[in-house]
Write a structure and sequence with these properties.
448 residues; 2 domains; 0% strand
Length: 448
């Protein structure tokens, strides 16, 4: 185990890097919340349609987020090795991957928008969601290009630049929602379709703004691609895909587990499903904090690996993992003490509030393990260890959590709380095994 002074010494730069990354994630949460509020003002059907369409979009987007984590890992390694031009080449290839993935994803979602009847939703919800999903689906192109550039900049320890454009995007999206949903400033009132156009336009302008600032920054001149139109290299694509596909599968496993948990809650009734959404919204918000630390750990561990100082990875990793655990324990205390008023903020139904309060107690239990598994995963990603953690998530989420949730939810008196207990089983398993994996891989002693 690393000494306490070395852990504390490495913790400060990790926090400084994690702070703007976390703020960007919270900004996205705020964006989703304001979208729901503004669409909800025009009726229940548009709100249900946007929720339905965004659940489809987010499943595709989450997988592609995992694919582009490789840009961060590779750029961090080259930056740590003192090869800024090589980091620029990583970005060039990452942008190519983002562009192709965005076009394929947008085309796939447009095709799926014509077949939403497969999901057996109410006809009015399906009809309203069709055009909205098509428009938002094509926003994958700018959002993935921006994500590749964001990951590259964070790997170069320039996280404030993408954060600025995240915040600009939030404000711009709210303004465009106001104009296009409700028909202000002479624009037609487009309703839900207007919200789709607002999302697409704000994402395009956010990409353009970030790209222009990146291009004009003299401090980043050495890390920019020197020949944008040069021939792309198969070897770089091979490395990016090797590092990117396992995180994509990991995120698919996790998203799939929680989506299936929502489906199982729906089998138990409207009240359990509503309570599940309330508790999960709270847990998803607190999750943004260890997620920011996780991404900072990927960068910092990748930096020291590239710099030929692998012995520092242990102190960096344990410091970030410990900090994430402390933060999540604090949130757990909030859920225990204030679970009922928090649930009451979302809804007035006493039955939903009562069940959501009990689920928040279980959320308090898995906060520690949820934070530990995501920060450990980030530290392992910085070590370029991605395949074995994917096997761990498959074991924890699909071979343990899902069967446990189904058994406890439907074959014991626990009901909804049994489903969440199954989620806890998966998160505990993944947290323990991922932490042990990181501890084993970082036993490299510091040379004399």
């Amino acid at each position: 185990m690393s000494s306490t002074p070395s852990i504390l010494r490495e913790l400060r730069p990790t926090f400084l890097l994690a702070l703007p990354i976390t703020a960007g994630h919270v900004g996205q949460i705020v964006l989703g919340l304001t979208d729901s509020i503004m669409v909800g003002r025009i009726g229940a059907v548009p709100l249900a349609a946007s929720t339905f369409a965004n659940s489809i979009f987010s499943t595709v987007f989450i997988v592609l987020i995992g694919l582009l984590t490789s840009v961060s890992v590779r750029s961090a390694f080259e930056h740590g090795a003192g090869r800024p031009a090589a980091a620029g080449e990583v970005l060039r290839h990452g942008l190519a991957i983002g562009a192709v993935a965005g076009v394929l994803g947008g085309a796939g979602l447009q095709a799926l928008a014509g077949r939403l009847a497969w999901f057996d939703q109410p006809p009015e919800v399906t009809a309203a969601a069709r055009e909205y999903l098509t428009i938002v689906g094509w926003s994958l192109v700018p959002v993935l290009l921006k994500l590749a550039l964001k990951n590259h900049l964070e790997a170069l320890h320039r996280p404030w630049m993408p954060l600025r454009w995240v915040l600009v995007g939030v404000v711009l999206n709210i303004f465009l929602n106001w104009v296009l949903i409700y028909g202000h400033l002479g624009a037609p009132a487009l309703g839900l379709v207007g919200a789709g156009w607002a999302t697409l336009i704000s994402r395009v302008l956010g990409l353009v703004g970030l790209a222009v600032e990146y291009r004009c920054s003299s401090a980043l001149a050495l890390a920019r691609p020197q020949h944008w139109l040069a021939r792309l290299q198969r070897g770089e694509f091979r490395q990016l895909f090797a590092l990117g596909w396992p995180p994509a599968v990991q995120l698919l496993f996790e998203a799939g587990l929680f989506n299936l948990a929502a489906v199982m809650m729906g089998w138990l009734g409207v009240v359990p499903l509503a309570a599940h959404q309330v508790a999960l919204s709270c847990a998803a918000t607190t999750f943004m904090f260890p997620l920011g630390i996780s991404q900072a750990l990927s960068v910092r561990v990748g930096n020291v690996r590239g710099a030929g100082e692998p012995w520092r990875a242990r102190a960096i990793g344990f410091g970030g993992i410990g900090a994430g655990a402390v933060i999540m324990l604090a949130f757990a205390g909030v859920f225990i003490v204030a679970g009922r008023p928090i649930a009451g903020f979302f809804i007035d139904d006493p039955a939903v509030v009562d069940l959501a309060t009990r689920l928040l107690l279980l959320a308090a239990l898995f906060q520690l393990f949820d934070g530990t598994q995501v920060t450990s995963m980030g530290a392992l990603r910085g070590l370029a260890d991605v395949r074995f953690p994917t096997a761990i998530t498959c074991l924890g989420y699909w071979l343990l959590a899902l069967p446990a949730a189904r058994y406890l939810g439907f074959h014991t008196p626990m009901g909804p709380e049994g489903i969440w207990t199954g989620l806890v089983v998966g998160l505990v398993t993944c947290a323990i095994l991922l932490l042990a994996r990181f501890a084993r891989l970082t036993r490299t002693p510091r040379p004399a």
